[in-house]
Amino acid sequence: MPTLRQLEYLVTIADTGSFALAARAAHVSQQTMSQQVRALEARLNVQLFERSATGAVLTPVGRSIVATARRMLADARDIVTLAAGAAQGLSGTVRLGTTPTLGPYLLSSIIADLHRLAPSLRLHVREGIPEEQLRELSRGELDVLLGPLPMAGDELTVEPLFREPLQLVAALDHDLAAIAEPAPHDLSGHALLTLDPRHHLARQAAAIADRHGMTIAPDYYGTSLGSLHQMVASGLGLTLLPGLYLRSDAGGAAGLKPLPVRGWAEHRSIAIAWRRQSPMHAAFMLIAEHVQGCARRLLADAAG
Fold this sequence. Notes:
Elements: H1 4-16, H2 19-26, H3 30-44, E1 49-52, E2 55-58, H4 60-88, E3 92-98, H5 103-117, E4 121-127, H6 130-139, E5 144-148, E6 156-171, E7 191-193, H7 200-212, E8 215-216, H8 225-233, E9 238-242, H9 243-247, E10 256-258, E11 267-275, H10 281-303
Parallel strand pairs: 3-4, 3-5, 7-8, 7-9
Antiparallel strand pairs: 1-2, 5-11, 6-9, 6-10, 6-11
């Protein structure tokens, strides 16, 4: 049978595309890496890589084996976590992925609450593009993912948490800011600033812009909600900001006028997901409950 070490080397080479880079990442010599992979190929009686001076490319059977190897390595990590949890209760390090359009403005108070409830539980938070992080979750590189729907995967448990309003905002001196209750047709022709199109929020913004006759400003993609905030406050156009951002200390509405558009009810749905077979179900449910409770309190305060 292949060893876990050989499978780790195999996955690392697949991720880096190079024996040299993989050896460096694994802190072993390139000779050791090559020997272990050749031993694995001999044991399986298949060629896993096409080797060249420019790198290593997986063969078709190699791609299938790497996909299975990722699941096996994730299961092995889960076994270690399960054993640690059984011995110590709710403990260990959880790798939590989240989008920069949510995590920075919600997680700080939640992490403090979780630490009081489960002092041995550690959260390693990593921000990224939701679709990329969904793949990382499936491969076992993340343990749990907090972000906007849609999330999908046959091997995943997905728990919807709350609906977050999306607010249209403008600069304080924008023409629309002077209208007490803009009508939907008043938005036609105005420029809407968005994030990189890989973000769910950017794609949702494009759909909203299309419905209201607004145009997307392609030369001004924001790198964060904070950058959108600054660009709109300087008069470059309108944007959509999540309700939790506008309620947060890190975000807020300084220099902005939320536009009370007649009939406006745009929102996004936030969920949490993890691998169905993960032994950390109790920890993930605890995180889910606290995210849900905190978000709903903040949104209820805003509505009140």
